[in-house]
Specification:
Blueprint lengths: L5 H12 L3 E8 L17 E7 L2 E8 L11 H14 L9 E8 L4 E2 L5 E9 L4 E2 H11 L4 H18 L6 H13 L4 H7 L9 H18 L7 E2 L9 E3 L5 E3 L7 E2 L1 H20 L4 H18 L9 H11 L10 H14 L16
Antiparallel strand pairs: 1-2, 2-3, 3-6, 4-5, 4-6, 7-9, 8-11, 9-10
Length: 361
Amino acid sequence: MLELKAERLEEYLSSVYKAAVKVLQIVPLRSGEVADLKGFGYGVPYVIEFSLQGQTKLVVLETVRPEGFGHDYFSDRAAILLWQHSAFNKLARHVSSVDVGSFSNDGETLKSLGDCVEFFILTDFVEGSPYHDDLDRIKETCEVKDLDEERCLALSDYLVEIHSVKKDAPALYVRRVRDLTGQGEGIFGLTDSYPSNLGYVDEKYFVELEKDCLDWRWRLKHKTHRLSQVHGDFHSWNILFRQGLDFTVLDRSRGEWGEPADDVSALTINYLFYSLQTFGEMDGPFGRLFKLFWKNYLDKTCDGEILKVIQPFYAWRSLVLASPLWYPNLPLVARKKILRFAARVINAREFNPESTGEYLK
């Protein structure tokens, strides 16, 4: 745990906002418990409520959890947060980053970096319900409302819009493809994170999957013309909806530019994830939303080539959803089917959104 004196936090916020600040309370996000000012935990986002010139404001202060996934060194975590601060405000609808700062050895927040021990990011607080709340409701009711379809299309349209911005930087695309496989947050980082001696998957599965992904890396290296503006972690926990179609996205990750299939796979696999938990197959309302999202995206981008590059991105996201670390309470049958989906889709030369269920058989 990191100790931080209240007066130092107030000094820091006063320097950011160029006026005197009084901290009112600190609440760990999602827990609802008021935090001790001397008890910050790494990797936990905190909502800070403070008064500024007679008005009450809310911001979120967050660090990066150090365990695994390429976050082992202090410099790894610093790089992530420095990049996020530079990139959050460049993407439409993304929550705004206010500042990036550091903690020093004595618990004081300073601009000087000579003795800092950890970085943090400060963003605006945004009201809204995560998109997975919608998916949870559909799971319970097995019904899709008109608003559900409209929101599905709005998210598809959002990716159509941001992916329309292209960049000519072949080396950067190759780097993003390399990161997909070899980076700590990528495929190899995920396979390393699985505990040994699991009853439902063995080392041979991961060896074969990694070999297949290496083949895909060399295929994708020649697709540098596809480099586009991306979010990088576009899943249902990083999208906050308010009324109707008004939404904000959170936690842009891993790079401003990349492969559009990254974003499309990150969102659409959630429909598969929920369908497997609800029906044991790709069916019903989630299958309907999956196809709706894909049809809209393909119709408006005319990017048929994405069906020939998305396979390793689906495999990567499958490893996240099937992980006993990320989803410890997932039913075993759903976990096994997600891993089966990864193994089948990675061997498909062209993905068919209309026949997703075939990859589960």
